[in-house]
Amino acid sequence: MNETVSSVDSVSNTLPQQEYEVSSQVSPDAIASQMAVEQRHPSVLPGLIGALIGSIPGVILWIVLGQLGYIAGICGFLMVRGAIFGYTKLAGAIDRKGEIFSTIVAVFMPLISEYLGIAVSVYRAFHTSDGLTLADSFASVPLNLADSEILRGLAINLLIGYVLFAISFIRIKPKQSKLEQSKIPRL
């Protein structure tokens, strides 16, 4: 056992002794270079995939509420928030470009939702009586859009969805009330 201890001591004596000097002040250039290294540049392609995936819950809710007979405008808000969330999660961060791409994805999602909603409505109406398949119902959507009543309902749903979509961009900052010394109740 003494041989092992002496060999460890001889190895530790042969290692170079390094002393690290810790500076009490850090230069501004060092801080700036460290911040530049730590700054993340979000990847666009994973971010776009994340935006598409993130908007899916809003699309599904839009279709479900539409099938129940409700105007599914609140889903526009969910689509925007979901797209931004998904972009941020898969890209690692979000910058101005990411916000723009997320918005572009979210702008098209209500159109896709309405298209899918019309296809589901056609399928539900005609699959038992006419033996319509899901693929046939998707193919018949452009023909159904020629009907003015369907087109009017689509326009109303999209208008409400886009209004709520725009409202979701408004950032609400609650006002914090500050109590002055004179307004503090004395006991």
Task: Please tell me about this protein's structure.
- The chain has 187 residues and is mainly α.
- The protein has a domain at 44-167.
- 68% of the residues lie in helices and 0% in strands.
- Helix 3 runs parallel beside helix 5, helix 4 packs across helix 5 and helix 5 (96-126) runs antiparallel to helix 8.
- 23% of the residues are buried.
> How many angstroms separate the termini?
75 Å
- What value does the Rg take, in angstroms? 30 Å
Biggest beta sheet summary: none
Quickly give the structural class: mainly alpha
Fraction of residues in β-strands: under 5%
- Helix content, binned percent: 55-70%
Q: Order of SSEs, N→C?
A: HHHHHHHH
Q: Helix segment count?
A: 8
Q: What spatial form do the alpha-carbon principal axes imply? A: elongated
Beta-strand segment tally: 0
Low-confidence region ranges: 176-180
Mean pLDDT: 77
What's the helix and strand layout?
Layout lengths: L1 H13 L13 H11 L5 H24 L6 H18 L4 H31 L7 H6 L1 H4 L3 H20 L20
